[in-house]
C-alpha cells in the first residue's frame, strides 16, 4: 500500500517535470502565498512597499495578541482579578495616537515617492497604444505603422466553446494564450497609452506591476521597463461582458536586436504577413490584420468568425480551427 502511494508520487513528479520546465519567469508557483516581485522597477517598488507594510502589520499583531493573551491569562477571574476602574489616561492616549501616526508616515513616505515614479512616463523610448475591445486587444506601435490584434488562442477558444476538458500537458497556459503576442524590447522604457472602444476594460499583466483601466473616450498612461526577456501573461481585469474572462494578454519581452528584426518584419508587407516566417514570435501566426476593420469587430461581438480582408490567411486559418 505504502509502495503504491510512493510510486504514484514518483509518477506525479515525473509527469509534472515537463510542466515545471515550461514554466516562465514570473509565473505564479503552486502554493505561492506572497505577491511576486515581477520584472519591472514598478513591480519591485510595489513588492517593497507591500513587504514593509506586511512586517509592520505583523509586529503590531504580535504586540497586540501577546498583550491580550498575557492580560487574559494573568488577570483571570479565577485568580480573583478585579477590573481596574479608570476611564482616562492622557499619557496612554497620546502614545496610541502618536505611534500609529509615526507608522503611517514611515509607510506613506516611500509609497508616495514610488507612486510618483510609477506615473512618470517622461523620457520613454517608444509608445504602444493599447485598445480594449469586446473581447480582444489591439496594439498600435505608435510612429512605426505597426498594429496587431491579439485574441484568445483559437484552439483554446474552440476547446472552451465545445465544453471539452483541456489537456494540461498540451495546453499548459490554457486560456492564457493569444494568437498574436505583444512583442516588446527589454531594457527600454515603454510608454503605454490605454483606451477602449466599447466598454471599460483593464489591461493587467501582474509581472509589470500595474493595472490600468481602458476607458472609452479617455486615454490613460502607464510605463514599463522590462528587465528580463520572457513571456508575461495577464488578463482583462474589468468585468466587460460575457467573454471578459477570455481576453488574455501575452507580453513577450525580447532582446533589443531581436525586437528590431521583428518590427522590421512586421513592416515589410501590407498584408501583415511577414516575409520570413521564422521571424514570427512563437505563438503568433504572423497574420495579424494591419488595422481593425469595423465589420470585423462587429463579427466578433456577434460571435461570428471575422472576415479580415487584409489578412485572408488568418481568416481561413481561424475558420479551420473553429470548425
Ligand atoms: Cu475586457
From TrEMBL:
UniProt xrefs under Gene3D superfamilies: 1.10.287.90, Cupredoxins - blue copper proteins
Key words of the record: Copper, Electron transport, Membrane, Metal-binding, Respiratory chain, Signal, Translocase, Transmembrane, Transmembrane helix, Transport
Span list, region Disordered: 271-323
EC number of the protein: 7.1.1.9
Cofactor needs: Cu cation
TM helices/strands, residue ranges: 52-73, 94-112
Span of domain Cytochrome oxidase subunit II transmembrane region profile: 27-122
Membrane topology field: Multi-pass membrane protein
SUPFAM superfamilies, per the entry: Cupredoxins (SSF49503), Cytochrome c oxidase subunit II-like, transmembrane region (SSF81464)
Record's signal peptide: 1-23
Compositional bias ranges of the Low complexity kind: 306-323
Catalytic activity: 4 Fe(II)-[cytochrome c] + O2 + 8 H(+)(in) = 4 Fe(III)-[cytochrome c] + 2 H2O + 4 H(+)(out)
Subcellular location as annotated: Cell membrane; Membrane
InterPro entries associated with the record: CcO_II (IPR045187), CcO_II-like_C (IPR002429), Copper_CuA (IPR001505), Cupredoxin (IPR008972), Cyt_c_oxidase_su2 (IPR014222), Cyt_c_oxidase_su2_TM_dom (IPR011759), Cyt_c_oxidase_su2_TM_sf (IPR036257)
Superkingdom to which the source organism belongs: Bacteria
Occurrences of domain Cytochrome oxidase subunit II copper A binding (ranges): 123-265
Cofactor, how bound (note): Binds a copper A center.
Keyword Membrane assigned: yes
Biological function: Subunits I and II form the functional core of the enzyme complex. Electrons originating in cytochrome c are transferred via heme a and Cu(A) to the binuclear center formed by heme a3 and Cu(B).
UniProt similarity note: Belongs to the cytochrome c oxidase subunit 2 family.
Record-linked NCBIfam families: CoxB
Name of the protein: Cytochrome c oxidase subunit 2
Organism: Luteimonas colneyensis
Amino acid at each position: 500500500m505504502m509502495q503504491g502511494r510512493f510510486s504514484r508520487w514518483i509518477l506525479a513528479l515525473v509527469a509534472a517535470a515537463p510542466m515545471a520546465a515550461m514554466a516562465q519567469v514570473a509565473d505564479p508557483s503552486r502554493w505561492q502565498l506572497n505577491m511576486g516581485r515581477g520584472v519591472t522597477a514598478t513591480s519591485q517598488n510595489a513588492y517593497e512597499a507591500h513587504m514593509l507594510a506586511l512586517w509592520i502589520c505583523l509586529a503590531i499583531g504580535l504586540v497586540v495578541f501577546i498583550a491580550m493573551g498575557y492580560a487574559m491569562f494573568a488577570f483571570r477571574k479565577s485568580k480573583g482579578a478585579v477590573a481596574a476602574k479608570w476611564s482616562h489616561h492622557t499619557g496612554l492616549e497620546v502614545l496610541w495616537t502618536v505611534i500609529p501616526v509615526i507608522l503611517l508616515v514611515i509607510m506613506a513616505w516611500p509609497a508616495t515617492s514610488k507612486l510618483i515614479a510609477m506615473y512618470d512616463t517622461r523620457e520613454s523610448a517608444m509608445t504602444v497604444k493599447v485598445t480594449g475591445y469586446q473581447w480582444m486587444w489591439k496594439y498600435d506601435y505608435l510612429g512605426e505603422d505597426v498594429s496587431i490584434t491579439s485574441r484568445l488562442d483559437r484552439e483554446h477558444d474552440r476547446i472552451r466553446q465545445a465544453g471539452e476538458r483541456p489537456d494540461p500537458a498540451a495546453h499548459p497556459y490554457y486560456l492564457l494564450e493569444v494568437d498574436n503576442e505583444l512583442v516588446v524590447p527589454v531594457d527600454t522604457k515603454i510608454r503605454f497609452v490605454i483606451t477602449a472602444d466599447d466598454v471599460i476594460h483593464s489591461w493587467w499583466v501582474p509581472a509589470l506591476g500595474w493595472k490600468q483601466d481602458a476607458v472609452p473616450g479617455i486615454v490613460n498612461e502607464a510605463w514599463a521597463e522590462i528587465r528580463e526577456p520572457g513571456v508575461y501573461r495577464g488578463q482583462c481585469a474589468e468585468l466587460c461582458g460575457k467573454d471578459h474572462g477570455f481576453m488574455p494578454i501575452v507580453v513577450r519581452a525580447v532582446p533589443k536586436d531581436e525586437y528590431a528584426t521583428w518590427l522590421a518584419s512586421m513592416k515589410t508587407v501590407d498584408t501583415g504577413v511577414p516575409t520570413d516566417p521564422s521571424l514570427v514570435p512563437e505563438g503568433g501566426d504572423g497574420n495579424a490584420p494591419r488595422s481593425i476593420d469595423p465589420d470585423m469587430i462587429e463579427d466578433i461581438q456577434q460571435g461570428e468568425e471575422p472576415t479580415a480582408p487584409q489578412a485572408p490567411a488568418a481568416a481561413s486559418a481561424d475558420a479551420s480551427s473553429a470548425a
